């Protein structure tokens, strides 16, 4: 029986991919085999040694100590693209809320009192206070053209915006799917200097912290809009607030409000709502539950942020052993020597690497004894060894 610890509410559709006869899923498991979570902050958590995999039902993994897990030989999985459409739609909503003054206008309309005729008169005299501007023909910068950014860029282009994109590491797949109307910015300064609105869709990393800063905002067209549904910290909030006060910016749309931001009348705050649709929650949970299950049962690695992709159909007459180790010479040699000394024949073997980490899947003709597993664990540089009995 595998034990799964959940640190957030995970969609039932996803959890149902883990059959109850083999999986116990609780928010209190003390020796879990795997953890499933969304935005729970794991950095200060004591992660039990029993944990063999972590599944993030979403995109961002900045709430997970990925480097620490890599050193323990534990893969961290996420759900790339599974919530991208939901975020794209909220970005469009944010742009429209900002450009058409929808929220203050709604508050005004809801505050009216009197007869129908009086309300109608107040509507007609008050509407001049909420005049907005159209998105059509405005220049819109999209930073990060991944699963979300490329959808946002394409949708904005379809609305008639002139879209400029920046992503020096764009994937081939996203480049293929990007509208050919999207122009490429040479660098971030080039992007900001042409834009009426900018939306960020990059992960929070040291290099992306404060990417939207004072000088870049100053180079934008007057009355600009910044949309940040990516992560707090990517925009320099002090610079944004100063630009809102001076009128340089007309609105800041943020999914990660802070005490300072929520007080400002030109800040449109959402409560981290980007991925909160039924569809996105289900997509993410299903994707990550499947990936964690395949890893626990077969050692298969799909969509990990720290492990190489690794899939090998089961072969051999015995069990499967998986090994995560430092990516240094002679590891496979030492592993096969231990197996050979135990009289075990390797039926099939897959060895993949990613950066400093290597991962090996071995199918054996015969069953491995605990002593040999211990010998594998003792090899210098071996981080994790798992024994997966034949199904
Ligand atoms: N608000 C929400 O609910 C919500 C939901 C999903 C994702 N997010 C955030 O959005 C981020 C992006 O999600 P995604 O699914 O598009 O991820 P993704 O990995 O598909 O795309 C990220 C893109 O950013 C690019 N990139 C990285 N560093 C860059 C830089 N310095 N300059 C320009 N481009 C850079 C990458 O090359 C990649 O193409 C996530 O990391 C997460 O923080 C928020
Ligand atoms: O990175 C993500 O996928 C989003 O921030 C969604 O977070 P959530 O799963 O907590 O809504």
Automatic annotation (TrEMBL):
Keyword Transmembrane helix annotated: no
Keywords: Oxidoreductase
GO MF: NAD binding; phosphoglycerate dehydrogenase activity
Catalytic activity as recorded in UniProt: (2R)-3-phosphoglycerate + NAD(+) = 3-phosphooxypyruvate + NADH + H(+); (R)-2-hydroxyglutarate + NAD(+) = 2-oxoglutarate + NADH + H(+)
Gene3D superfamilies: 3.30.70.260, NAD(P)-binding Rossmann-like Domain (3.40.50.720)
Enzyme class: oxidoreductase
Residue ranges occupied by any ACT domain in the UniProt entry: 320-391
PANTHER family: FORMATE DEHYDROGENASE 1, HYDROXYPYRUVATE REDUCTASE
Annotated protein name in UniProt: D-3-phosphoglycerate dehydrogenase
